[in-house]
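[audit] Reproducing an earlier prediction to check determinism. Same input, same settings, fresh worker. If the tokens differ from the archived copy the diff job will pick it up downstream; this log only records the rerun itself.
[audit] input (171 residues):
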Amino acid sequence: GTVFQGLISVDTPVSAVDISDNITVTDAALAYTAGSFNVASIAENGGTATFTLSGTNIPDGTLVPYTITGITADDIVGALTGNITMNSNSGTVDVVGVGDANLENETLTLTAGGKSDTIVLIDAAPTVTYTASTNTPVTEGSNIQYTMVATQVNGSSYEDCTVTSTGTSAI
């Protein structure tokens, strides 16, 4: 604590001698009491989780450093380190997942003020959809050309395609 030394004044005279003493003022201990995410998991592609750090006797505007481990920087929006700004004994940081071409579930740990919590970034295999179009109408006996368009394909993956016919002859 801080020690102040000086005269203590009294409204009514005690004697002709000044009274002096040491006064010790102790600040209330600041403490971080909890740190947790609001969800257990998020989708890697755009999912958001909020980490809340709370405590007691924390001055407004206090910056508390945080670190994110267990993942790489390209798995989330923003950096793996930063600061949480405390106001009214609480502060938050959002973690937003970013999709990538790797299909893996990863555990992310955020630590701030000596408090930690984990969430899982869940990769979901994309739902690949196809649309087919042709140069219709086709004259019997002529070739037909189909154009296949795939959406939501991750990276350089290839999908098998089967074409069947409902006409009188097989393709």
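[audit] rerun output stored. Observation attached for the diff report: The first strand starts at residue 2 and ends at 7.
[audit] end
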